[in-house]
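Subject: for your reference before the review

Hello V.,

The reviewers asked for a structural picture of the protein, and I figured it would be easier to keep everything in one thread rather than splitting it across files. Below is the amino acid sequence we used in the manuscript, unchanged from the supplementary table.
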Amino acid sequence: MPKSFDPFRTKNSFSFNKLFDPTITAMIGIPPLESGGNRPLKMTFEDHLRALVYFHLEEHKSGQHLLQVLKEDDFARESIAPKGGIKKSSFSEANNTRGLEQFIHVFQNLQRYASDVVPQQHKELGDLVCIDGSLIDAVLSMYWADYRKGSKKVKVHLGFDLNRGIPRKFFLTNGKGAERPFVSRIIEPGQTSVMDRGYQCHECFDQWQKDGKHFACRIKANTTKKPLKANDVAPDSIVFYDAIVLLGTPNVNQTKEPVRLIGYEVEGVKYWVATSRLDLSAEQIAAIYKLRSDIETFFAWWKRHLKVYHLLL
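And here is what came back from the structure prediction:
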């Protein structure tokens, strides 16, 4: 059977191109990728992006494995590899000098396109952005990705659009990178960040309110609370506590600005959520925090189904 009629090859081509086509549009107006040395680039940015997407989709275990496939597989050689092929040294150089500015350009355009297409849910709850971090394995040559002896990991700090179910902003640090500083970099004024207990920071609560950035953050149950004003709680509600309070120990870590604190119970588990949102009911605040699980679902899908289990260098 002629190669042009090979059904497996046709399926591969259709699947990859259908996935990659929006990226081609997102590359319009992209800043040119220039060589960092005296030699001209052996891979264009599009070549490099195609190879990396193919690497993760096909579950290749190493750069060497990918290079072998780019050389031996008909579809990969014709549709993924640069014209004339690519040698190991040139591929390593492309990875070492990957175009961060170009990747950001593509991501921002894809995010913008998706925001226009994906229907917005939970509009009555406002613009919700869940923030969380996740670790990705990195190869040992990535010295900056320090985590512990014999282990290199990169931490992804992600802002996830809960209204549309898509990523909004992300940052990368080494595996030990602190998470709280990225809240202010991800959240815009008027948006509401949704966070777990690891982001509890009373000084940050004050600063975010000063900046006009809302939050709904689960806090530790044993956090000191100074009630200032109690709100009514419906007797048949999952909510058992709703008040304006100061959080923390006076003269140690107490908030300067009051926050609203919601306590509710689901299946025997008590949740305490501090928030700056005064315009919603306590039950709506509980619903907002429940949506936080969507980012865990996204991380699982991203790693298990898109096969982004480690970074390649």
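For the response letter, the relevant points are probably these. The chain is about 35% helix and 25% strand. Residues 7-26 form the longest helix (20 residues).

Happy to draft the paragraph if you're swamped.

O.
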